[in-house]
Specification:
The first copy, chain A, is an alpha/beta fold. Chain A is 44% helix and 15% strand. In chain A, the strands form two sheets. Chain A has a five-stranded parallel beta sheet with strand order 7-6-5-8-9. In chain A, strands 2-1-3-4 form a four-stranded parallel beta sheet, with helices on both faces.
């Protein structure tokens, strides 16, 4: 999200809206990327994101090749470079990269002339997630600018939080982040408009509430006795929603730990747009592939 | 097979015959399901069935996405529900489900508006296997009604046996089941016309003999000293075939344990239609996909 | 390569040149193999070769199905035969086979009427690798006949070396093989024009230098104290290149152990055609699929 201008983001979101229409048709197929080769290189397992990119590519008629590399052979920078050089030599048009190391897609992009899309790298960025979040907000609120958005949970370790803080700031949103002190990154004040450790305070007047997935193995390091204790302090409940705006919406990047970071009543209520996020994920990825291969956006996203 | 009427079964078998023609062509491709998205969700490994469904979908021009979920993350009902909701949000047209738990595809079908095809669930049903078995019998015998069919082996644990008992009864076939007492289910008399523990008795006058795959780890529970002992009592040999009708045929759902449930001479003889079953498997799956997505059959099969 | 005549090889190389053009286009797609079903059966993991065949098939519009069988279930000859019979019954047009056992693709070819392509079997052959090597040499040198080629490293265990010795001899190339005595096969003199254990001697006057990948676990058996010692004696360096012809080229089948069988300066120099080999790999595989399915070459390659 760091590389994108507000105009880029608007263009992607507008194109995503058109692309969503293709998935709503009876014949979910456009010939746009016929004869293009897309490699899905997932060095970290992720059925959802891989499937979303695969469906996006196929609905635009591209040839999609999946490569799931075990972390081992790709952990050394050198062999990753070698692998990428080899893939590039097979003349793909675009490589989608999921990697556990921060910055791996950016490195790959420097090594190759091929277009590279970041599908999530370590704790760094997850740009298509941020774009699908903004698309979902835009569908519901008709605008982004000026909205109050709360992002809460393990801010420090979340690439979703990071990409959204960067992207939403560019779109003029008013960002509040909330989490236990041990889960807030250094210099978080520079990335968000408000920072608090009280979820009850954070949600007051919110238009958008975005939960993050908690990785339970991190709770111990964060000095929480257990998931129940975490949930008591940082789990989103109906009582929080009453303090938000009456038409506030709730997002979650999934998969959800129900009863930990978010209560079942909240997930299933009418304010939940969690499944719209998934639907919009395919649309945003179609738009990304289309703009990078069919029209002209910059090389790395 | 429980949901299908005899008319449904006839319609699928007639359509399968047309579909088989596509696989015999030089250009094995029809544009029928262009723009449809099919997800192959295999929570239990099965190269054969997955490949059969994948080929069936691609020959009809659908986009086919494979998802192989390790049993672990899907063993909890809740996360399976969550996963299915997420897949549905990506707007597939049909989900093919193989699962180790009885009833998982039916549950999934209730959770989603998407069409669901059962590709084998636990010890419950394997409907496309039963349909391909009946197609193979029909090709050879020109009819189903009134035929004497013997199903023998581990009846209790076999979803193939169960789907066939249900389906063949609907088509008016005369069903004899045979196996050691410990491998016969409760109330088997209600599902079959004849029940016996003697294979020599069972095969007398048979038109169709269907072997089941024995899972050797089950022999011990069934109080058999070993595979050789089992084979002596419940392995199909040439001497059995002599008691069947002179033009009897032999089926097996594969993969075969040669020399255990069936002798090599029987597998390789002219009565064996085992490979026709595999060929017809692709045809039946093409028909299933076509009727559920192109024409109008009921939602769950 | 043993089955191919020099005319066959020339025909494949000429066709590969045409096929390479398709991968250079904006729309990398030809309708040639539309309606053909290709099964990639990889019983040994190989992301590169599998990806190369998958891209080749898809660029020619074939339906490509990947099957990765764990070695276990396929180690028994009988179950491999059974599996192949089953795959054939699904009416694929061509099966690409990678297998750890010498001769497995040839066996499979005898068992089936289906066209079989060897994608590397044990220490026996890797014909498409040899063809892509010759294509790369031809691109650079405009001819094959009369060229001096050096193949060095673990000759005994390399299917790449074996296929190239057979193929290059047919094309009239002058072959020198070089490696430690323990890595030279019996009767190597019958397969190569010159045999030496000195890399410095081997490269004198060479037009083409082909490194092989060393499997470090084999060094111990070959009585080398370690990789550094091996590298000192059998690693290709700039000083070797000075003894070769001034326009000599360097090939490597990948993946490269930089600093062991070849120094980084050599890999990155202008004489290195390693990435051209990868690009040509897709072209050679497209040509192979096309000639076997579209035009008329013999059944097994």
């Amino acid at each position: 999200m760091e590389d994108l201008t507000p105009e880029d983001i608007s263009q992607i979101l507008n194109t995503s809206k058109l692309m969503k229409g293709i998935s709503e048709r009876d014949v979910k197929k456009a010939p746009t990327l016929r004869g293009k080769t897309i490699i899905n290189m997932f060095a970290e397992p992720s059925t959802r994101t891989r499937t979303s990119f695969e469906i996006a590519g196929k609905r635009l008629s591209a040839d999609v090749i999946n490569i799931s590399t075990s972390g081992s052979s790709m952990s050394k920078g050198e062999s990753l470079k070698d692998m990428v050089a080899n893939l590039e030599a097979m003349r793909p048009d675009l490589i989608v990269v999921r990697h556990k190391s921060d910055g791996a897609p950016a490195m790959i992009s420097r090594w190759t002339n091929c277009t590279v899309v970041n599908a999530g790298d370590g704790r760094h960025e997850h740009p298509t997630q941020s774009l699908l979040d903004m698309m979902t907000i835009l569908e519901s609120k008709r605008k982004l600018e000026g909205l109050n958005v709360v992002i809460f949970g393990d801010i420090k370790n979340s690439r979703v939080a990071r990409s959204n803080m960067i992207g939403m700031k560019k779109m003029g949103m008013n960002i509040t982040v909330c989490g236990p002190k041990t889960m807030l990154p250094l210099y978080v004040e520079e990335m968000a408009d408000n920072v608090t450790t009280s979820l009850a305070d954070a949600v007051v007047g919110a238009d958008v509430i975005m939960a993050l997935r908690i990785q339970t193995e991190r709770l111990e390091k964060a000095k929480f006795p257990n998931a129940r204790e975490y949930s008591r302090l940082f789990g989103l409940t109906l009582s929080h929603l009453k303090k938000a705006k009456h038409n506030a919406i709730v997002l979650h990047p999934g998969p959800i730990n129900q009863g930990i970071e978010i209560s079942p009543e909240v997930v299933e209520g009418q304010w939940s747009v969690v499944l719209d996020q998934v639907t919009n994920g395919v649309a945003v990825r179609m738009a990304t592939l289309y703009l990078l291969l069919g029209a002209g956006l910059q090389k790395t996203e």
